[in-house]
Amino acid sequence: MVREWLHQNHKRLVKVKFGPEEAIYTTNRKGEKLRAVQMRNVEGMIIEITQDSNTKPMLLIRVPRDHDLVLEFDSVPSRAKFINKLESFLRSISKTLEIVTTLKDVMLNNAETKERRQKRLEHFFREAYALTFGLKPGEKRKLEDVSPDVIMVMRTSLSQSEFAGALGMKGDAVFVKRMFNIVDKDGDGRISFQEFLDTVVLFSKGKTEDKLRIIFDMCDHDRNGVIDKVELSEMLRSLVDIAKTNSLSDGEVTELIDGMFKTSGFDNKEFLTYDDFKLMMREYKGDFVAIGLDCKGAKQNFLDTSTNVAR
Ligand SMILES: [Ca+2]
Ligand SMILES: [Ca+2]
After folding, report:
1. From the CA of 181, how far away is ligand 1's center (Å)?
2. What pLDDT score was predicted for residue 6?
3. pLDDT at position 50
4. Ligand nearest to the CA of 65
């Protein structure tokens, strides 16, 4: 166990696990996962270590585009042991390790803490919403009319868990994963400001048709151009799960879907084309989508227009 430094007045005991896969995990005492630092898309890791003699030795793991992981050790030998383990782990996944020495004050002053990152993300969303009301779908903002701090915001990108947080949902919800994949158009595993903005604009100002297309694509997991009943029930289950109203049994979900097919006159179909889907959504006035989006997403107000779907 080591102490994780969160900010000036907050430390907590954590366990650091190297792997499996190309990631470093922190867990709490009970072994519950707190955080994953993904190494998949980086060449190596940079850590900072303090060299002050009169305070507990510290170590900062710099995490690109996310907040840093700052650890405090009881002694220099225990930190050295940690660095050894880290080094051999990184070697095993062919990543480099660079160690920078620094002073504690400097380290903590410059650390990108979760709080600081949060502030920047809040700015990110404020900007996104502000811009939404001045842009048409697909329109880009000119870089020359923005201030430096806005440019900084525009360079910020969201991880899946940050994106989920913005929607007030859990990062591992099927719905969030699907939504993330749709918004992350270039597929780099991050949501850039522009990617986020495109979706916000689309959802708040776009045509019903555009919104339905997004939802259709989210459901069509295997991307074969049609939605089968399994895909529909996966999505529905995740939405119901998010809404947390009352969970539905497998039987009830099947019944619901069969009912939806029937009402739309698709009794004999096993899957929906995009045109079928549009027809069905017209029938349901978007209820199916509204379940998940309305409750929590309303927090940020950006998907709150879901009730207009198919109107
Ligand atoms: Ca992206
Ligand atoms: Ca499909």
Report:
1. 9
2. 87
3. 96
4. 1
CA-to-CA distance for 176 and 198, rounded, in angstroms?
A: 17
Strand residues in the chain grouped as ranges (E): 2-7, 10-18, 23-27, 33-38, 44-50, 58-62, 69-72, 96-102, 157-158, 191-192, 227-228, 271-272
Both structure tokens of 177: 């994963």
Q: What are phi and psi of 266, to 5 degrees?
A: -110, 30
Domains in the chain (CATH in brackets) are 2-111 (2.30.29.30), 113-205 (1.10.238), 207-311 (1.10.238.10)
Closest ligand relative to 219 C-alpha: 2
**Which residue is associated with the tokens 């992350």?**
184
Give the pLDDT score at 286: 52
At how many degrees (to 10) do helices 174-183 and 193-205 cross? Answer: 100
DSSP class of residue 269 equals: -
Phi, psi (rounded to 5 degrees) for 122:
-60, -40
The conformation of residue 249, written as its DSSP 8-state character, comes to: P
Tell me the CA–centroid distance for residue 180 and ligand 1, in Å. Answer: 9
Average pLDDT by consecutive 10-residue portion of the chain (311 residues)? 88 92 92 88 91 93 87 95 96 94 92 83 78 63 63 80 79 82 88 83 72 85 92 83 68 86 89 90 61 38 37 28
How many angstroms does the Cα of residue 306 sit away from the middle of ligand 1?
23
- The Cα diameter of the chain in Å comes to 76
pTM of the complete model beyond 0.85: no
Query: Which ligand minimizes its atom distance to the CA of 231?
Result: 2
Burial classification of residue 111, based on how many CB atoms lie within 10 Å of its CB (0-12 exposed, 13-18 middle, 19 or more buried): buried
